């Protein structure tokens, strides 16, 4: 097993597993495993035990998986390592999903068993000036991304004749070429098309951060607004920097077409840039929490209960509300935003993603 593969496991698998295991501690204190509650209930002893139990079960699964993967990889070929890496990711996703669903139903039962005195009248807090504030960084920053894409396309066209007839497109975790395609203007410029798609996608993400449905804690609305503004601005910065990183990665791929680099160098950069995005996202998640809940966290939880919209959250994770015009809302499980699956525009967006993926598969990229 190469040092590069080992570092990939260490710096991606361990932080992601830890984040998944302790995710219930990073959510808003008005939500527990996808169920709406008051901050006071969130901090109660039964829910403290439930979060601890979730973390222990998660780590009890992730740690052995990590050890097994490292052990098997040390005695495996490059091809098997790639397969093993994919299997590990699938296991983590399936386990995390199943565990969240299990705790969602447990939390649903626990909420139903709470005394009537705890289930007080719900309060909805709204700030009518919220969306008039500067919640995100300007989309003008994406001009940098666009310039990088245009320069890369121009370089590819200028040096088109010097590009080899067979272009390496995919590498295994050892840096060996596993897929090549014949040179053509389509294959040479495909990275630029992907860059334009990525730029458009991140501009949409930045717009969604600005326009997503506001969620304000009814217990302390003024402080909650400040938390949410900081939360959106920092994730807007993340969106711009991660978008630039991905655009830069495609430019690097194009550079490798013109001047083929060492396979190890190609793999190092291809793993380093996504690693930056993953670690950046993890640091943001831990330091600010969902909705900015970890910024200036109050010592005492409020007994005020937020509006109960649990019926619109399927399994506590999927938001489906035909009466809500919002395209995006804050996640209840995880950090960031999710989509309103009842909004007609969602299916247009998903169709676009499927088409782009299908084109890439058709071209063998």
Q: What's the number of extended β-strand segments?
A: 10
**How many DSSP helices?**
9
* CA gyration radius, whole angstroms: 23 Å
Oligomer category: single chain
Mean pLDDT equals 83
- Note poorly predicted spans: none
Strand content: 5-15%
Shape: globular
Global structural class = mainly alpha
The biggest beta sheet is recorded as: 2 strands, antiparallel
Indicate how many domains the architecture comprises: 1
Helix content percent band:
55-70%
Whole-Å distance between the termini? 26 Å
Features:
single chain; 365 residues; mainly alpha; two-stranded antiparallel ribbon; 9 helices; globular
Give an overview of the whole structure:
The protein is mainly alpha-helical and 365 residues long. It has one domain. Helices cover 59% and strands 8% of the residues. It contains 9 helices and 10 strands. The chain has helices spanning 3-21, 39-42, 45-74, 78-112, 142-158, 185-211, 221-258, 263-288, 344-362; strands at residues 31-32, 35-36, 122-123, 166-171, 177-182, 305-306, 313-314, 318-319, 328-330, 337-339. The strands form 5 sheets. The protein has a two-stranded antiparallel sheet with strand order 1-2. It has a two-stranded parallel sheet with strand order 3-6. It is globular and about 75 Å long.
């Amino acid at each position: 097993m190469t040092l590069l593969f080992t570092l990939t496991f260490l710096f991606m698998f361990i932080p992601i597993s830890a984040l998944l295991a302790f995710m219930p501690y990073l959510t808003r204190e008005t939500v527990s495993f996808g169920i709406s509650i008051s901050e006071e209930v969130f901090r109660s002893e039964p829910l403290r035990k439930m979060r601890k139990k979730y973390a222990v079960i998660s780590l009890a699964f992730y740690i052995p998986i990590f050890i097994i993967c490292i052990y098997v990889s040390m005695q495996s070929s490059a091809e098997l390592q790639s397969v093993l890496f994919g299997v590990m990711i699938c296991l983590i996703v399936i386990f995390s999903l199943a565990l969240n669903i299990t705790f969602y139903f447990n939390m649903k039962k626990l909420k139903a068993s709470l005394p009537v005195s705890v289930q007080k009248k719900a309060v909805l807090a709204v700030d009518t000036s919220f969306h008039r504030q500067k919640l995100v960084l300007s989309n003008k920053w994406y001009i940098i991304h666009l310039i990088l894409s245009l320069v890369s396309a121009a370089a590819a066209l200028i040096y088109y004749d010097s590009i080899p007839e067979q272009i390496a497109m995919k590498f295994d975790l050892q840096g060996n070429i596993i897929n090549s395609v014949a040179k053509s203007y389509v294959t040479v410029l495909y990275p630029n098309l992907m860059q334009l798609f990525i730029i458009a996608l991140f501009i949409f993400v930045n717009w969604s951060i600005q326009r997503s449905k506001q969620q304000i804690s009814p217990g302390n609305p003024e402080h909650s607004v400040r938390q949410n503004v900081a939360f959106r601005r920092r994730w807007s910065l993340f969106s711009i920097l991660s978008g630039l990183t991905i655009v830069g990665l495609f430019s690097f791929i194009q550079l490798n077409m013109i001047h083929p680099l060492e396979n190890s160098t190609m793999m190092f950069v291809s793993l380093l840039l996504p690693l930056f995005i993953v670690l950046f996202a993890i640091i943001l998640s831990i330091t600010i929490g969902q909705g900015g809940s970890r910024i200036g966290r109050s010592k005492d939880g409020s007994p005020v209960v937020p509006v109960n919209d649990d019926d619109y959250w399927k399994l506590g994770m999927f938001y489906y509300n035909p009466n809500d015009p919002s395209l995006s809302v804050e996640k209840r499980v995880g950090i960031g935003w999710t989509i309103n699956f009842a909004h007609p525009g969602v299916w247009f967006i998903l169709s676009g993603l499927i088409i782009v993926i299908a084109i890439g598969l058709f071209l063998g990229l």
